[in-house]
Amino acid sequence: MDMFGKKFGNEERASLEVAEGSRQTEWKKTSFLRGLFDGRFSWSLVHPFPEQAPEDKKTGDDYIARIGKLLKDKLDPEEVDMTGSIPDAAIKELFAMGAFALKIPEQYGGLAMSKVNYGRILHYVASYCASTAALLSAHQSIGVPQTLLDFGTEEQKQKYLPRVRQGTISGFALTEPGAGSDPSQMTTTAAPVEGGKFFLLNGEKLWCTNGVIANVLIVMALTPPKIVNGKEKKQITAFIVETDSPGFEVKHRCVFMGLKGAQIGLLKFSNVKVPRENIVLQEGAGLKLALTTLNTGRLTMPACMTGAGKYALRVSRLWASKRKQWGSAIGEHEAIADKLSTMAASVLAMEAMTWYVTHTADRPHADIRLEAAMAKKFCTETNWNICNDALQIRGGRGYETSRSLRERGEGEEAYPLEKMLRDARINTILEGTSEIMDLFITREALDTHLGKIKPLFDPHTNIWNKLKTVAGMGLGYALWYPRLWLPVLGVGNLAGVPPQLKGHVLYAKRKTRQLARGLFHALMIYRQALAKKQSLVSRFVDIGADLFAISVVCSYAAAQIKKGVSGSETADLADLFCRIARSRIARRFGEVRRNQDALKKEVSRNVLDGRYEWMESDISK
Ligand SMILES: Cc1cc2nc3c(=O)[nH]c(=O)nc-3n(C[C@H](O)[C@H](O)[C@H](O)COP(=O)(O)OP(=O)(O)OC[C@H]3O[C@@H](n4cnc5c(N)ncnc54)[C@H](O)[C@@H]3O)c2cc1C
Fold this sequence. Notes:
Layout: H1 10-21, H2 32-37, H3 54-74, H4 77-83, H5 88-96, H6 115-128, H7 130-142, H8 144-151, H9 154-160, E1 170-173, E2 189-193, E3 198-209, E4 216-228, E5 231-242, E6 248-253, E7 264-275, E8 279-280, H10 286-297, H11 300-322, E9 324-325, E10 328-329, H12 334-361, H13 369-393, H14 396-399, H15 402-408, H16 417-424, H17 434-445, H18 447-457, H19 463-483, H20 499-526, H21 534-563, H22 569-593, H23 597-608
Parallel strand pairs: 1-4
Antiparallel strand pairs: 2-3, 3-7, 4-5, 5-8, 6-7, 9-10
Helix pairs in contact: 3-5, 3-6, 6-7, 6-11, 7-8, 8-10, 10-13, 11-12, 11-13, 12-13, 12-21, 12-22, 13-16, 13-17, 17-21, 18-19, 20-21, 20-22, 21-22
The structure holds flavin-adenine dinucleotide.
């Protein structure tokens, strides 16, 4: 079936078909964001803010205290950055305390931590050493433990999960030199041999985090295509691969601007023999497995970003209140106060979004694929801005390395802000770039509509079925669409929400309806070509992100005040965040109507065609 239409070239259409065929299609569980994009503002899913059970919190608190001590005793993040490696002694002790088996159930030798505690632990580690957070996260969020817990057979779990307590490190190998955001371009093959009992893996995998030191990997590879409806269909299959297998080679350890201690490599597979029983899920289901693993795995990212953002805020606070220039502390100058207040409001929003989604992930009736993607995009971009502002607040000291600051003496505080900025930059790229998150979120946000109108675009649907679809749609939309224009009279339970925040919750409900109308109108105007209107859809996604952030911030602030963690000043902070977010939302709705998208497209075409090459004169080439 062709749901992509003639606007797409053959190659693009083929990639989209592979991605579409590997989507998690079922939507059986609750999702605040899915409702939001449909015009439903399910405040009761957000408020009261989810709470960690006291025993679970104590387990997390105790573990964080222990891992904090271990890291401070055994691992110097500056040394990791300089030498490009995490000391073996520290890794050994991390294994001993189960840091590589946090989410693995006790029956397989793991610590059986809740997702909230896992997130809290990674949040702490990321605030201390980003490379160590990458090591633990790549192994547990997307590597062997998560993949096998979600999709492994009992035999696979029993064979591989206990090994994780004994020193096994894992990674996830999807990306290739020619296949980044578009995994359908992969060329690594797994050819069946010996009557299909084994497969021979051949090809290269790029930038596999932990790949240089991993003992076992989840590797996605092409298995022989299938013929479906007379057409050849690519089959991508996931394999568990032991790195001591003959034919496996680390071809190159990659070096980046940040994450210097992470062991990320280009891996080569030359006739690596893998038994059939190492297929995870089933033959041909490897891309679905990879994308589904990333859907929840990328949830670790917001926790790490929140940890890092809080550290940057702390450094900024300490410095801006101490450093005096022009007669007062720099934090008293309005330009710096602007940055500090925005940073604090943004940290509150990251915190609220992260813990809302993480708590929700622990609930069996919730589907967090949209929330995790949104939180990943929001928190990685917000943290980048926060780290950048923190560096600006530190002035020249922000640009100086922590080692140089310390060695310079004179009581300089050796805050590693330049390292934080280097470490932070990759996060808007890996585990799904921000641009790909926009496309993913839009696809899922429109799923209800696409499910209804797909038969209309399908050349194989006969005219009677098309008419039946139109009739069914007419009835459904006659009930749904007018509701989006009704005035908002209330949102339900606002108990505990500070007075200055109640209006923001009502606003979020009102704008939710405007967002759903806007998306629906855009779909009706552009139909399949909406997927090509990336600037337009990214505005809708950003509006959705801010509405989500406003909702969770109001609920989170109420919870913090109720618990006595903070006083009414947190209501002011949430109020500030909501006001900033509302300005952004107003601007984006305005840009939906009036924008420079067409002119930008024309200019970028000229750039690509080299028509402004004359401006590249007198530079080094
Ligand atoms: C430090 C590091 C660690 C990594 N760890 C792992 C790992 O453990 N396992 C693994 O499998 N991979 C890993 N990766 C790969 C990472 O996931 C990819 O870098 C990412 O998926 C993007 O692919 P790419 O870099 O090839 O960019 P490309 O896909 O070439 O994209 C380049 C730019 O074009 C944009 N773009 C691409 N397609 C579209 C589109 N359709 N519409 C709009 N914009 C588009 C992208 O957003 C990006 O801005 C890692 C990468 C790095 C740098």
